[in-house]
Design brief:
The chain has 507 residues and is an all-beta fold. The chain is 1% helix and 55% strand. The strands form seven sheets. The chain has a 14-stranded antiparallel beta barrel with strand order 1-2-3-6-7-8-9-12-13-14-15-16-17-18.
Length: 507
């Protein structure tokens, strides 16, 4: 399948093997099982299916002998698990002097040719890619390429295709990748056709347990070169800085590679350096932007709840996540207890999570939990096998009703007579601010004569003008009873004991 050194230079469009970004270059191009960003389009189109957000990346490379290589990749979500990618590459060589024979026959061959202008050879590639999960742990992708090469007045065009797979193995932390690249027909310059540089890649990506280290071994089988053995390593320093090292052995050049990446919010930049013996050094720099942060979040506009109410006292928790169309299962956990918190309540389902869940303050057995603070977290499993966990959310169970105080301000010195219009001062005794203040006036018959209500945080006073709910007048000199009810947002309520006063009209 793979050829030896004698086959070097026998294929066309070899620029398609130059890869794309600086991250892969720093890892010795052992990237077929990684490919989890826009850069991965050049190594395995299936890698897009691992991405939870879209991304744009641009790369500039300074190659040996003044060769310039430019690359742009973009990945977009199509929903329903599918991802779409776009690629544009160009390789520009330094200007070449063009000569023609002048008909002379000098002993110095350089005198037999005359300069006839110059030209700049270049290669172009434009590609579209598609990837999606095929099964819970297997993703596939395909890339269609349009290739163009120019050499002075000669131009050639071709079509090529890449196929790729990524499999999340049952072994924790290990992924396997495969790609077949540059499947297509020969590219013809003038009358002679040259095969495309067919390449097969096999590799792994292993997250070392209990560390932030990834190790990536890979074997490449090109049809125009000897087999290639490559290995790369990347370390995650707090999700911000990523030092990298790689080595690539192909029996011709055996370059080591170094580089690093930096991430800040949605932006990222990567750099790499790779030596090629006497040909010189190559340098790459990439800049990327993600269309949103991957991950999940939960928040509660009002993170308090009551566990003693049958309905209406729960906490409403809003859910947000990247790529909900790729979620295969979700679970919302509530933890509590000490010194080792345990799971007290689980809400779960398959497919995309709902936009909101409600916790009623009870455990999985339906028992009301005691007052106190609890912590909630959301866990998502994606079709790619990735598990994303949200930050913790603090929720507080509050079953204690607000305790209100009722003080009549127009009571006469004898303490039993109340002057109407009657003014009442209201206050709280160490409790959460109520949502409703309700003063009820009970007539001599014991029935509710008048209801006064306020939804202020705490009204300055409540005033009874002596009239009933239907506008009827009260009976002066009769005994009326007064009670205050306060209700908080959780539905917890308390009521003061009835206070009886003989009501008289103000003179």
């Amino acid at each position: 399948m793979a050829a030896g050194v004698e086959s070097v230079g026998t294929t066309s469009a070899t620029f398609t093997k130059l890869g794309s970004g600086a991250r892969a270059a720093a890892l010795g191009e052992a990237y077929v099982a990684v490919a989890d960003d826009a850069e991965g389009l050049a190594y395995n189109p299936a890698g897009m299916a691992q991405m939870l957000t879209g991304e744009f990346e641009a790369t500039h490379a300074e190659w040996f002998q003044n060769l310039l290589y430019e690359n742009m990749n973009a990945v977009f979500s199509l929903g329903d698990g599918g991802m779409f990618g776009l690629t544009f590459n160009t390789l520009i060589a330094p200007s070449v002097v063009k000569t023609v024979a002048n008909g002379q026959n000098n002993t110095d061959p350089t005198l037999n040719y005359t300069e006839d202008g110059s030209f700049s050879p270049y290669d172009l590639q434009a590609a579209v890619s598609y990837a999606r999960p095929l099964y819970p742990h297997l993703s596939g992708g395909v890339t269609l390429k349009m290739l163009a090469q120019s050499l002075d007045s000669l131009n050639a065009f071709g079509i090529a295709m890449d196929l790729g797979l990524i499999y999340e193995t049952p072994y924790p932390g290990l992924k396997a990748g495969f790609a077949a690249q540059n499947l297509g027909t020969p590219i013809k310059f003038y009358k002679e056709g040259f095969d495309l540089p067919l390449l097969f890649r096999f590799g792994g990506d292993y997250a070392v347990p209990q560390t932030r280290l990834h190790v990536m071994p890979e074997v490449d089988l090109p049809m125009d070169e000897s087999p290639v053995l490559a290995i790369g390593a990347e370390y995650d320093v707090d999700g911000v800085f990523y030092p990298r090292v790689g080595y690539r052995y192909n029996n011709i050049f055996n370059p080591w590679s170094l580089g690093f990446g930096v991430r800040w919010d949605l932006w990222g930049t990567d750099f790499s350096v790779v030596p090629y013996g006497e040909l010189g050094m190559t340098y790459k720099g990439s800049l990327s932007y993600r269309f949103g942060n991957p991950g999940a979040s939960i928040q509660a506009p009002f993170p308090y709840l009551s566990s003693t109410r049958a309905a209406g006292g729960g906490a409403e928790v809003d859910i947000a996540c990247a790529a909900p169309d790729k979620v295969t299962a979700w679970a919302f956990y509530v933890y509590g207890g000490s010194p080792r918190p345990s799971i007290l309540r689980t809400l779960h389902g398959r497919g995309a999570p709902p936009s909101q869940v409600q916790w009623d303050g009870r455990d999985d057995k339906g028992r009301a939990l005691p007052e106190g603070a609890y912590n909630a977290v959301l866990s998502l499993r994606y079709a790619t096998g990735q598990v994303v966990v949200s930050p913790w959310l603090r929720l507080e169970v509050d079953n204690t009703p607000p305790q209100g105080l009722l003080m009549p301000a127009t009571r006469l010195p004898n303490g039993t007579d109340l002057v109407v219009p009657a003014r009442f001062q209201v206050s709280l005794r160490d409790a959460r601010v109520p949502e409703v203040w309700r003063l009820e006036v009970l007539g001599p018959d014991g029935k509710v004569f008048r209801t006064l209500e306020s939804r202020e945080a705490q009204p300055q006073e409540l005033v009874w003008d002596g009239k009933g709910d239907k506008g009827e007048a009260y009976y002066s000199g009769q005994v009326y009873r007064f009670r205050l009810t306060v209700i908080d947002k959780l539905g917890n309520r308390s009521q003061t004991p009835d206070q009886a006063y003989r009501c008289i009209f103000a003179q």
